[in-house]
Write the structure tokens for this entry.
Amino acid sequence: MPQGKTFWIALTLPSFVLIQSQNTKAASHPPQLIQIPDLVTVKAGQLTAPPAWAVMERLLMKAIEDAAPVYLKRFSRPGGTIYGRGDVDDVYEMFFNWPLSYAMGADEKLFHWALQEWNAITRQFTYQHPQIHKEFFANSDWFHISEGNMAFYDFGVADGTLPENLLRAKRFAGFYMNEDADALNYDPKYRIIRSPFTGSKGPDLSADVDAIKYRLDPDYGWSTLYPVVKNLESNWSDSPQRRKQIQELFEKMVMSSDIPVNLAVTGLVTHAFLYTGEEKYKQWVLEYVDAWMDRIRQNQGIIPDNLGPTGKIGENRQGQWWGGFWGWTSRYSIHMIYGALTVAAECAQLVSGDARYLNLLRSQIDMLMSHSITRE
């Protein structure tokens, strides 16, 4: 950010507007009022009693405000670190809706407490329970990264003027634009994210036996080795030879693949675009979404759940388009895939203004309904 200037962000429909206030001395100063052509304004001409839902919403906000300090004292130490431990995405979620509550009208203390907790959790899970690297997920899947990022995204909604969060937004997006040599998660030639598990340490292309057991658990069906292994025996890890064989197959078929859930990365890159308005973030989002829309067309209208290292559908599964991590055969297939499709469709439409990107999601809803079965 240029010294002596503050950037203020306004999100309007149908376009994103970046407002720059000239020669401000401190980021804490309020933005100057700037006339925006064609900005729709709504003026209230009559005072009336608020509707019941609005009264209830304010009562809920007041209850949250009253409960927050009790919650903080019970679950966090002075300085913000938490008692106990867990997966860091779940820990971030302990305070994820506080900045959004503030943005909707709750007390400003919720915003400051949320910032304190986010910073404290980030420190704690960098040094004490290492899951964070360079203030971002060292390596995880994009369902869980998305869960953990909710508070960070809403910091921009609550106050888009904090310099450290602007810099973080750019740096985090850079992990998926190959701007960090330690995090080459994206292959621009084939327009793929190189693994279902990525982060600030780059793509994870390997897996230990315990992780493989968990991810091939038939009760959840996170992934499969089908059709190479059609019926995996339950005791496959007992034999060193078989264990090595399955591990190599898993790393090739599952870990070295792109999956639809990775489309949620568009939320992170769009976040950087909303902070900066820089064209490169917009172009990355559209490039990646366009690539997946192309693959839907190539696969007779169904989004494939696995791509190989050169972007080919089913490349490491003998051409089979299903069976990938959190794909069509998994326990939560629709929840995982359609959640990411929703994020990507909305982000692409937001940065481009082109409603055709909503077809990314709409096409798959239509496809699913066309294959539905009606029972009495």
User: Anything to note?
Assistant: Confidence is low (pLDDT under 50) at residues 1-34. The chain has two domains: 54-133, 186-370. The beta strands are 6-11, 16-21, 132-133, 136-137, 186-187, 192-193.
